[in-house]
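call fold(seq) -> tokens
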Amino acid sequence: MIPWTIYVFLVLELTAVSWGDVRTQKIPNNWSLLNLICFVLLLIFLPEYYPFALSTFLYSAVFLAVGFVLFLLKIMGGGDSKFLFSFFLLIPVTLQSRALVLLLLSTILIGGFLLLTNVGRNHEKIVAYLKSGYIRGIKECFGTKFSFAPVILLAWLWLGWEIGMFTF
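ret:
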């Protein structure tokens, strides 16, 4: 479980981060720094949810490592990977694995939707580029990276639904 106040704080934070990410395609480092400060406070004041143990840092460390590789491959922005690293520190250990599963499902759903939308919108161009062998043109039909913070927000809301945060 997660304290209601922390869940709501993270919903509000994710909403603000998502808004900025959609508008600018950037996630400022200030959000990651805020999360790190909050995490230190949570370690001190809520050790029952945030123990100072290796398991608390496991998912975050993986996000940092994998995110760095994805950044080098130009698949994910640096701000996205740093934010995910710091955000997962704020998820209680008992919920981190489910949060990861829901993040992956949300990524597949949103990414798949955007892929199908781009194929539908550009199918004539894609067919023409395939016939001509102009592979770069196909890549151009799919545009640039999409904002990832709204995907994180969707996964977080989904998690909240599953653990009963919306029962009044």
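The CA atoms of residues 115 and 142 lie 7 Å apart.
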